[in-house]
Design a protein that fits this description.
Elements (H helix, E strand, L loop, with lengths): L14 E5 L32 E4 L12 E2 L16
Antiparallel strand pairs: 1-2, 2-3
Length: 85
Amino acid sequence: MIKYTYTKTYALLDPWAETLPWECATHAHNPMANDPCAVEDCDELLRAGEVCYAVVELPRLPDGHERWVCWRHVRPDDGPIRVAK
């Protein structure tokens, strides 16, 4: 018998681009695997092999790079798009 359920609601955002986080340790790329999600109060990391998104609601960083968010803010019911290696 389940007595308690815990759910977390994620802010749904409008993506305009998607990519895979880089895993290369020798160069500084954007986004990198294990970077934090750009949404305030989201504790998730961008995972290698899972698509992440640039969204219209977040402005670019001062250096011109996009701010990337985890899949939970774009497709929380469908789960991540995973790329097989």
